[in-house]
Structure prediction request, 219 residues.
Amino acid sequence: MNVSPRPPLPQGPYLLVDDSVRPELSLVDKALRLLAGGARVLQLRMKHTPPREALAAAREVVARCREAGCVCLINDRVDLALLSDAHGVHVGDEDLPPEAARELLGPARYVGVTARGTEGARAALAAGADYVGVGPLFGTTTKVVRAPVLGLEAFRRVVAESPLPVVGIGGVGLANIAQVAATGAHGAAVVSDALLAQDIAERVRQLAAAFDSARGTGL
Prediction:
């Protein structure tokens, strides 16, 4: 029986507010544009933002997400997640171990973990994670990833075998999000394709529609 105090993470596009994409826009501005399109899950990734500025941005973005009914996760930084009252964190290969993140965050917040395959997903479950971000699914230029590209067929196998919900990461956009959804994935992380769109809110709506219509179709 599932006794987790956390509801399941919403399905669909998993939008990232990244400080390296569209730097002419503030983090809050980017978040507001994503929320205007109906973002369900938003991750705040601030690799290049000074700590005080990052905390201020996190507090503002989390507050706006809560008002909109959107789950807000902080990339890497458990301290910022706690101080901003975020819904949780996502930790990668070189970040704080998920066991430690769960210990600090307690049972009420989400912990997401980057995994490269089924074994990583099983380890994440044992560590107390709620979901795994699996990739790189396609090639990506948003961040340096020291792992081979999985491709759709290998990703489909991971989705089928994973004990946790799977979010596809790496190079996902409107051109391929339906293919990701058709594998049965719980979500698909999108960075540049949304933030570089001329109309960010409209792109979010398009991404959500494409994902929702294709999920579980097996196309």
Observations:
- The mean pLDDT is 93.
- The longest strand covers residues 12-18.
